[in-house]
Amino acid sequence: MDFAFSPRAKDYIERLTAFMEEHVHPAEAEYTRTLKTGERPWNVPPVMTELKARARAEGLWNLFLPESEYGPGLSNAEYAPLAEITGRSPIAPEIFNCNAPDTGNMEVLVKYGSPMQRERWLKPLLDGSIRSAFCMTEPDVASSDATNMQATAMVKGDRMVLNGRKWWSTGIGHPDCRLLIFMGLTDPEGPKHARHSMVLVPIETPGVRIERMLPVFGALDEPYGHGEVSFTDVEVPLENVIAGPGRGFEIAQGRLGPGRIHHCMRAIGASERALELLCRRALTRIAFGQPLASLGGNVDVIANARIAIEQARLLTLKAAWLMDTVGVKGAMSEISQIKVVAPSVAQSVIDAAIQIHGGAGVCDDWGLTALYAYARVLRIADGPDEVHRALIAKLELKAQAARVGIDIRKTRG
C-alpha cells in the first residue's frame, strides 16, 4: 500500500481544509444559536444554505461518490482524508452534501436505482434540494440481525403495501426530508437472504406517521433527528421497489461498505478535534501552580490518544485502499475492524477531553458532549461492535483453518 495521497487528493485536502478554517468553523456558533432560537427547532439556519451554495460553487460537492458522472470521481482512499476533515465539525458534512444517511441512499440509487428512480430522487438529492431517511431498524426485534425484520413490503398487483414500525430513522426530522427508503419482508418462505425488499416512499404518502423523535442523551439532534415511524397500509407503485422484490438484503450489504469508511474517517476527525481542544486546555489551564499538561498522568493521556488516532487512521486508510483494489468482499474483515476501532478511539479521546475540561466539558459550550454522543452511537449504528467482532473472528478462523488444512465445517457444533 502506498501511504502517500494522490496529487488530486492533496488538492482537495488543501481546498477543503482552507474552506473549513475560513467558513465552517467560524459559522458553528451562529448555526447553533439560530437553530436553538429560531421559530422552531427543526429549521435550517440561513448560514447553512449560504455555506452549501459557496461549497458547491467551489467544487466541494458530492465528494463521496466515486462515479465521475455524479461527483469528482474520487476513490475511497482519496475521499477518506476528506471525510476526516469534515468530521471535525458537526455541521460540515451537510455543507458539502456528504452527510449520512443521504450519502448511503444516493449510493444505493446510483448502484441499484432504475432510470426513473434516479431522475425523480437521485437528482434532487445530488442537488441538495431534498434530504432523505433510511428506515430499517425496528423496536421489537434485534435489528443487528436483519433476518429478524418483522415489517412487511408485500406485492399486491402493481402496488407495494408496507406495514410495520421502524425507529432510529436518522434525518427524518429535517424540514427538507422528502424520501424514505423502507426495508421490509416480502417473501417469508424464500431463501434467507432473498426475502426482503427496499422500497422508495415519499414521506407524505398516506399511512406514514412519525410517532416521535428519539433523544440521544437528552438531545434530539436537530434539525436531523432520529424518528420512530409507523407504516400502516402504505401503498406505493411497484416501480418504487429498488432493483426488484427480494433484493433488499443484497442492497443493504452493498450500502454499508463505503458508508463505514465515511463514518470511521469522520470519527477520526472528531477525535482530532477533541485532542486539539484537550491539548489547548491542558496548556492554558493552571491548577496547583502548574498547567494541567504537567499534572498527574495527563502526558500519558495525550500520548495514548495520539497513538490510538494514528493506528485507527492507518487501519481505515488500509480498508479504503483494499476496497479500491480488491472490492468490498476482499476488505470485509478490515471494514469490520475499523468499525470497532474508530468509534471506540473517538469515544475514548473525547472522554479524555471532557475530563480535562472539568465542568466545562459536560456542558455544551465546547461541543464535546455532542461529539461524545456521536461516537457512542456509532458503536451501535451500522452494526454493533459485537457483530463486527463476530465477523472478524469468523474470517480469521476460516483463514487460519485453511492454512493448516482443518475443515472448519466439522468443528461446528
From TrEMBL:
Tagged with keyword Membrane: no
Sample GO molecular function, one term: acyl-CoA dehydrogenase activity
SUPFAM superfamilies given in the database record: Acyl-CoA dehydrogenase C-terminal domain-like (SSF47203), Acyl-CoA dehydrogenase NM domain-like (SSF56645)
Family matches, as Pfam families: Acyl-CoA_dh_1, Acyl-CoA_dh_M, Acyl-CoA_dh_N
Protein name listed in UniProt: Acyl-CoA dehydrogenase
Similarity remark: Belongs to the acyl-CoA dehydrogenase family.
Keyword Transcription among record annotations: no
Keywords: FAD, Flavoprotein, Oxidoreductase
Domain Acyl-CoA dehydrogenase/oxidase N-terminal: 11-128
Subunit text: Homodimer.
Record domain Acyl-CoA dehydrogenase/oxidase C-terminal: where: 246-394
Top-level lineage group: Bacteria
